[in-house]
Amino acid sequence: MKSLIALMMSLVLTGPVIAADRVQGVLDALRAEHGFPGASVAWTGPDGAVHVRTTGFADPEAALPMTAETRMLAASIGKSYVAATALALEADGQLDLDAPVSDLLGERAWFARLPNHDRLTLRHLLNHSGGLPDHVELPAFQGLFLSRGPDDPVPVPEDLIGLILDAPPLFPAGAGWAYSDTGYLLAGLVIEAAAGQPWGEVVRDRFLLPLGLTDTEPSDQRVLDRLATGFTSMAGPVMRTLDPEGRLIFHPGIEGAGGGFVTTATDLALWGRLLLSGRAMETEYLDAMLQGIDTGAPGRSYGLGVGIDRTGAEEVRGHGGWIPGYVGSLRYYPARDVAIAIQINSDVGMLGEQGAVDGIERAIHEEILKIVE
Question: DSSP letters along 333-359, please?
Fold first, then answer.
């Protein structure tokens, strides 16, 4: 009897570890199949415990392994921090998401040249219904991005917003949906005007420090501690994102409030579960965040800094991200109370209709959800 009890206890204690090692096997197999240098995966469920698995290298040329402490650029996943901060300021009476943006930015010399400037609200900016073009898609931005050397200053938000001035709106404000990083640059300026401090500091004070997200910070400088070397084919031949001195070859601050954070998969998973389950603030905010705009894709809507997908058997909330050299995703399954974060330090072969990242995400999610069940 004692030996049977001992065996049962052993199975209880080792079962979750063995199951999680299946994730390791899937992750290693995906790396072998797709050839990406490294990846980090973290998930957390109803018990709040965080599980992390990594594969490959943070820098293959230096044989530096990927670890749970390795950080990568979050890219557009960072929009969730900006939207949450706007909701927090509204709860404190410092902002009104439905007030005209002109109340806070209207005196700036360029403001009247914005498409839909007289009708824009902060809600329009956060859910991409403002009818604004996306400066990131313009040839002028792509030339600017590639032309900046390691010692050049980062463009300020007004420089990038200036790329869409005098352009016709895509549609009247509130009458459609079109993804726009430019809208989030404007949202950052609105937050700064309301709070009286840089938007990144507001995010830090409101969420990063109180929630213990110690591996997350604004990516506002070229040297970022524990940053994995990324690999990108954006400009043609595959390039490393870090130069021999360990500096990013582009200034990550160019992303600004459009998603500019560096983080770990662990912090992302923790943030996703807290934010997208309604636990990140004491005040009620989740219904407002999830009030989605139809994106035109069946079953998919976009709230405030979060996408909502109802195409499958259950709802999934979250956001994807890409910046040259780094791709990632953060998803939350509300019916299971499970958040899953994935970071990969390469965009080579990952993007577009034939890109591998969607299939990689599905394979990892399927294995993790089996474990949770």
Answer: ETTTTEEEEEEESB-TTTSSTT-SHHH
Q: Find, among 49, 15, 59, 12, the residue nearest to 227 by Cα.
A: 59
Q: What is the average per-residue pLDDT within 95-123?
A: 98
What's the pLDDT at 1? 38
Print the SS3 string covering 26-51: HHHHHHHHHCCCEEEEEEECCCCCEE
Q: Are 88 and 73 in contact (CB under 8 A)?
A: no
E-strand stretches of 123-252: 217-218, 231-232, 239-240
* Beta strand pairing call for 338-344 and 64-65: unpaired
The model carries a pTM of: 0.93
Does residue 93 register a pLDDT over 90? yes
Q: Spell 30-61 as b/e; 16+ CB within 10 A means b.
A: bbeebebbbbbbbbbbeeeebbbbbbbbbbbe
Separation between Cα atoms, residue 364 and residue 186, nearest integer Å: 35
371 C-beta neighbours (distance < 10 Å), count: 18
Task: Judge whether 72 and 263 are in contact, CB under 8 Å.
Answer: yes
